[in-house]
Amino acid sequence: MPTALGHIRVLDLSRVLAGPWCAQNLADLGADVIKIERPLVGDDTRAWGPPYARDADGNNTSEAAYYLSANRGKRSVTVDIASAGGQALLRELAGQCDVVLENFKVGHLKRYGLDYETLRALKPDLVYCSVTGFGQDGPYAHRPGYDFLIQGMGGLMSITGERDDLPGGGPQKAGVAITDLMTGMYATVAVLAALTHRDRTGEGQHIDMALLDVQVAMLANMGSNYLNSGMPPKRMGNAHANIVPYQTFACADGHIIVATGNDSQYQKFVEVGARPDLAADPRFATNPLRVRHRDILVPLLAGMVATRTRAEWIDQLEAAGVPCGPINDIGDVFENPQVKARGVAIEMDHPSAGKVTLVRSPMKLSATPTAAHRAPPLLGQHTDEVLREVLGRSDAEIAQLRAGGVL
């Protein structure tokens, strides 16, 4: 099958999560992604375990599950970027690529002759994407940026977690590195836009992606709420700032989520709960009124929900057309019939583990489907292959580079 980006080659100088997530998206779409790693050490996330992938005998391999999650579809090449020979090799590789991804500190790659201006002089149509914590300019540009810090600085932790006046209240980070992941997604969009521009004009460009910018952007309605009211939103646990009821409730045997997006759904919810009076009450007739009187309404709804089991509520609310659902653990997720029907978990051949199970790309394209064509690579697995194929190096030349400590 044809792929959307089968004509694109990417030089990936990034590591950890935000940059590799972008590169994995591009690989899923068919791009040839060449992942550059430090000899002997590689991407930091290779050591971020346990857990690790296991071989057929159940023994741990050296491949951390964290690393496996973000590096599908790539080819790994080891290069000592600190050596003059390694820098020259990377400039040569960049000249054969359409895109360069990097997440070094601002200005760090200039000393190696691998910055945008240097590479643009060699290849004017190059798309060069820099991912940093704070961007290429501004008073914080020199600072390193990590997802956890940015979730705090960027306001996400001020609106995540239980209310301060309730047990367990206080700031809370998201369960995954959401700022890194969203930066990777925005970077993917930006790279695709820049490639489209290049295809129309022949002109490359520099993309400046900052985790803090992304975190502020993804505040979405909460950021807009502040900008249009002057009041900083606060933590509300599993409640919604603008919709009531839109939260979790405790059933007789567990918890459910009820998400009533309009007045009709709310009315159906309380009718299923045998409390039509809560729809007739003028204090709760519309969503703005329910938001205003949430402290009165929510305890009444909680008492209603507590009288039945989770299964009973889900069956009855689904039949009535009220959005609802369980709170699954991750084991439950992969056993969910819908997740199974969509083929979200995929098994791939792996050179050391034999088989690894990963999550496929969620992008489904009818004409150019994504393809998990290559498992996350072993460190340096494709060094010789790429140097022969892309740069035309002979085996003797590769051996000489290796002997000189370049690879």
UniProtKB/TrEMBL annotation:
InterPro entries attached here? CoA-transferase_III_domain, CoA-Trfase_fam_III, CoA-Trfase_III_dom3_sf, CoA-Trfase_III_dom_1_sf
Q: Which molecular-function annotations from GO does this UniProt entry contain?
A: CoA-transferase activity
One Pfam family this chain carries? CoA_transf_3
- Report the superkingdom from the record: Bacteria
- Asked if Lyase is a keyword of the record, the answer is no
The cross-references to SUPFAM superfamilies, in alphabetical order and at most eight, read: CoA-transferase family III (CaiB/BaiF)
Q: State whether keyword Metal-binding applies.
A: no
User: Which keywords does this Swiss-Prot/TrEMBL entry list?
Assistant: Transferase
- State what protein this is by name: CoA transferase
Species in which this protein is naturally found? Massilia glaciei
